[in-house]
Every structure is written in C-alpha cells, then in structure tokens.
C-alpha cells in the first residue's frame, strides 16, 4: 500500500490542553508534515458544548458534540477530555475503527490501561501517552524505550504541578493553602476537580503508570499508597525550613523484596537535594537504574502548552508509524511482580512533639520509640516560637511546654505507626504535632 500523503487527526477535548494541541497542529502544520512525511489534517474537535466561547485559533466549523462519529473518520485520535467515561469508550471505539490513539489521561490509564493496550495490540495500532506523566517532560518514552536494556530500581519524583506550586507558594510567599490552590486553578495546572491534585490521586495515577513501566508489572491506582497535602499546615512548612528541609509531594516507586512498592505522600526533602530546588509547577523525576546509575528529568509538569508539546511528540511518532509501517512498543508486564503491602514500606521519619519541659521526658520518649524497634537518628529540643499558643502554656504538672523534633533511621511504616500511638499515650506528651516522612538523604 502506498504511504498516505495526509493523515486525518481527530481531537477530543478543547480545554486547557486541547486548545494548545489544536494551536500546534495548525501553526506548525508545515514542519509537522515534513517530520512525519504526510500532512496532519485536523478533521474535527469534539467538545461537550459547541456554543461555549473558544480561543480565536479554533475554527468553529471543526467543533462537534458527536465524538463517536468523529473518531470513526480519523487515522489518529487525540484524547484530552480526561476522566474515565466517555474517554475509555471513545478510545476503544477509535482503536476498533483502526485509529492510533494519543492520550494525556492518566486517570484512565492508571485505572484500566491494560484494556486499551490489549485492544490496540489486537488492532495493530498504537496507544501513546507521554503527556499523562509529568506534562512536557519526556519520561514515558525514556523508561519504555531508552532504559529498556537496564534494570530500574527506584523512581522518585515530583509529578504533580499543582501541589508543587501550592507548597512552593506556602513556603516562599507564606500564601494560605486555599489561596495557592485557587492560583493553580487559574493558571490551568489543576485538574477539573482540584481534589484530584491536593489529595494525591493525580500523582498516584502517575505513580501507577511509572511503576508499571519501570517494573514490567501491572500496577493500578488502587495499588498505590496515597496521602495528599491537605493536612500540611503553615507550621509544618515553617518547621521544615527550621530543620533544613522543604516539603514536597513525592511519588516513590521501588522494587523491594516484598514486591513493587508505589506510594505518594508529602515528605521532607533536605534543602541540598536537587528535588528541593524544583519550584512552582515544575516537575522532576529521578530514576535509579542498575547500569545507568542516577538520572534526573526536569521540566514543566502542567499547563496547556507544555502538555501539548508532549502530546504532539506522540502524534508525530504514531503518524510516522502509519506512514512508514510498524508500531511502537506494546505493554510490557511479563515480570508480574507482587504488590508490596503499604505496612512494609520503609523510610525515615521526623516527628514534632509538644512535651512537658521537665527532667526525664526525653528518656521516656526514647524508651517508647526503641521498644517498638524504631531507631532514633537525632533529637532536638527547640523553644516554641512566641507566636505559638503552646509557647506560654503550662502543663498539668506546672512545667512549660517544649518542642521535641525526633528524626528516625529507616523504619517500617507499621513500626512507626505503633511508635506514634505509644508516644501519644505518654502523659508528658501534650501533642503529636506532625509526623512526616524524610526522603532523599
Ligand atoms: P479541561 O477541563 O480544560 O478540558 C476538557 C475538555 O474536554 C473540554 O473542552 C470539554 O468540552 C471536553 N469534554 C468534556 N467532556 C466531554 C464529553 N463528554 N465529550 C466531548 N468533550 C468533552 O481539561 P484539561 O485540558 O486540563 O485536561 C485534559 C486532559 O489532559 C486530562 O486527562 C488531564 O488529566 C490531562 N492533563 C492536563 C494537564 C494540565 O496541565 N491541564 C497536564 C497533563 C495532563 P467543553 O470545552 O465544551 O467543556
Ligand atoms: N493537574 C496536573 C498537575 C496536571 O497539576 O500536575 C498535569 O498532569
């Protein structure tokens, strides 16, 4: 069959990302044609409401509310609607109709990616999804292709732009949590429902995708241990600084003896660690591989144009396959490793305790910690700042309140939970002010 001179491209969704994808397809049409070897003709854009106001670049004649009919007349379908349905049904319909698909939809891939990969395999078409993890940063392809001759041991990353922006604004400008979330929404970083960002669901979906790719094992979002940033207070942020750290929401995927461990949670990162310098909505992903050693990928993790860059990279790849023949790598899940139970995950912890400032309290706390098998790395007793209401408060025994900052060596999550419960039971402990994991040191 002769190579096609043009490929029909259907765009599903014309929001923050879709608008920028359309812009690149239109403004860079000639360059794209040269890179692909065929023109990429945008044949339609499916939206929920064709009467809604659009960017001037969008030709109203391209808009349709009939996404199903649109995918049937395309060689390549780009899905930037988001969510599970109707995105899944539309993508499966596109694949069944013979189209290759490109999606930025991490929620769908982390919940039911294998259904799409299987369908694409049977139909002999591509499913590409570089934009689904860390926006503009090339990370899916490096893991899936460049590092496929190596053995990845650990992936550690800041993969949600919204939460990084929020924590950064709280740290550097003292912004209130809600104010910073509203700014992230205005800037187009946040998901349609920002709960997905601040409660860690978005990062957990990305962790599932990264772990699946890195460890050749199917990992879904329900396998990822998840904690968001909604409980992080201005005090936590201030004390992180005092102890030489910054708080980041991290996604951590590891191959452990118990199996694949994937978790998302806020963590204290030492100020001299490269991840501590990742500001605003930027993302960064560290990979530790057996032969390659440490690699770091850094760039814009959210926003219309950066995400569109990743989408267009995929569009060019799948278009080249259609012009030249062949297809990209299929899903690799041959290893089938077990998923490690969250209780087995090991890390260092930092606890902040408000305790009665009297002799013997430190020894009591240390005894409780060691009784649960957790080893203390460092203890600092710090005066509470004047503005803290506890600074002037007096315990029931007449003593003033002091702040203990305890850092542990690596400990299992289950042991730490026992430690915290036992500490909270001590009479001398007025409050367990925070317990945060420490990563990257
Ligand atoms: P938006 O909410 O801005 O846009 C969604 C678009 O989908 C809108 O144009 C909407 O139509 C359309 N849409 C919604 N439901 C339907 C439907 N049933 N049929 C047809 N069209 C529909 O989302 P984003 O552009 O921010 O995100 C899109 C995808 O990209 C998501 O999967 C997201 O996770 C992912 N992503 C987003 C990033 C970002 O920074 N925003 C970064 C990386 C990935 P209408 O305009 O009429 O409402
Ligand atoms: N809401 C996501 C973020 C978009 O803030 O990172 C990019 O996936």
From TrEMBL:
Pathway: Amino-acid biosynthesis; L-threonine biosynthesis; L-threonine from L-aspartate: step 3/5; Amino-acid biosynthesis; L-methionine biosynthesis via de novo pathway; L-homoserine from L-aspartate: step 3/3
The entry's keywords: Amino-acid biosynthesis, Methionine biosynthesis, NADP, Oxidoreductase, Sodium, Threonine biosynthesis
Positions that bind L-homoserine: 191
Pfam families in alphabetical order: Homoserine_dh, NAD_binding_3
PROSITE patterns in alphabetical order: ACT, HOMOSER_DHGENASE
Family matches, as InterPro entries: ACT-like_dom_sf, ACT_dom, Asp/hSer_DH_NAD-bd, HDH, HDH_cat, HDH_CS, NAD(P)-bd_dom_sf
UniProt: NADPH binding residues: 106
Listed cofactors: a metal cation
GO biological process: methionine biosynthetic process; threonine biosynthetic process
Domain ACT: 350-441
Keyword set includes Magnesium: no
Binding site residues for NADP(+): 12-19
Catalytic activity: L-homoserine + NADP(+) = L-aspartate 4-semialdehyde + NADPH + H(+); L-homoserine + NAD(+) = L-aspartate 4-semialdehyde + NADH + H(+)
EC number: 1.1.1.3
Single Gene Ontology MF annotation: homoserine dehydrogenase activity
Catalytic site positions: 206
Function, as annotated: Catalyzes the conversion of L-aspartate-beta-semialdehyde (L-Asa) to L-homoserine (L-Hse), the third step in the biosynthesis of threonine and methionine from aspartate.
Family of the protein in this entry: Belongs to the homoserine dehydrogenase family.
Name of this protein: Homoserine dehydrogenase
């Amino acid at each position: 069959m002769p190579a096609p001179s043009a490929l029909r491209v259907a765009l599903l969704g014309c929001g923050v990302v879709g608008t920028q994808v359309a812009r690149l397809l239109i403004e860079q049409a000639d360059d794209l044609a040269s890179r692909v070897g065929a023109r990429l003709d945008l044949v339609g854009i499916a939206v929920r409401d064709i009467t809604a106001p659009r960017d001037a670049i969008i030709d109203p004649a391209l808009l349709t509310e009939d996404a199903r009919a649109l995918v049937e007349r395309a060689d390549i379908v780009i899905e930037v609607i988001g969510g599970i349905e109707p995105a899944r049904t539309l993508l499966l319909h596109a694949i069944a109709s013979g189209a290759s698909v490109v999606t930025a939809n991490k929620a769908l891939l982390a919940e039911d990616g294998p259904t799409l990969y299987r369908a694409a395999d049977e139909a002999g078409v591509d499913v590409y999804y570089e934009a689904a993890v860390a926006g503009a940063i090339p990370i899916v392809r490096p893991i899936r292709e460049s590092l496929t001759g190596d053995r990845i041991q650990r992936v550690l990353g800041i993969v949600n732009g919204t939460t990084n922006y929020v924590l950064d604004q709280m740290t550097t400008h003292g912004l209130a949590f809600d104010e910073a979330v509203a700014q992230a929404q205005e800037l187009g970083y946040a998901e349609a429902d920002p709960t997905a960002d601040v409660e860690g669901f978005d990062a957990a979906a990305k962790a599932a995708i990264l772990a699946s790719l890195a460890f050749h094992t199917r990992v879904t979002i329900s396998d990822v241990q998840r904690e968001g940033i909604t409980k992080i207070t201005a005090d936590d942020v201030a004390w992180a600084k005092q102890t030489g750290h910054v708080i980041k929401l991290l996604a951590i995927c590891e191959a452990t003896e118990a199996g694949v461990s994937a978790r998302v949670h806020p963590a204290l990162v030492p100020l001299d660690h490269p991840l501590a310098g990742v500001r605003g909505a930027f993302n960064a992903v560290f990979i530790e591989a057996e032969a390659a050693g440490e690699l770091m990928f850094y760039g814009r993790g959210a926003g219309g144009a950066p995400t569109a860059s990743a989408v267009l990279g995929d569009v060019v790849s799948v278009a080249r396959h259609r012009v030249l023949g062949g297809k990209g790598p299929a899903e690799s899940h041959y290893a089938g490793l077990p998923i490690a139970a969250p209780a087995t995950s090991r890390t260092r912890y930092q606890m902040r305790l408000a305790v009665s400032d009297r002799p013997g309290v430190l020894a009591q706390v240390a005894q409780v910690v060691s009784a649960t098998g957790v080893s203390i790395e460092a203890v600092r007793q710090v005066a509470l700042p004047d503005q803290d209401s506890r600074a002037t408060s007096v315990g029931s025994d007449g003593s003033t309140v002091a702040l203990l900052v305890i850092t542990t060596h690596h400990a299992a999550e289950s042991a730490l939970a026992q430690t915290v419960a036992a500490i909270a039971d001590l009479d001398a402990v007025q409050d367990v002010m925070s317990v945060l994991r420490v990563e990257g040191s």
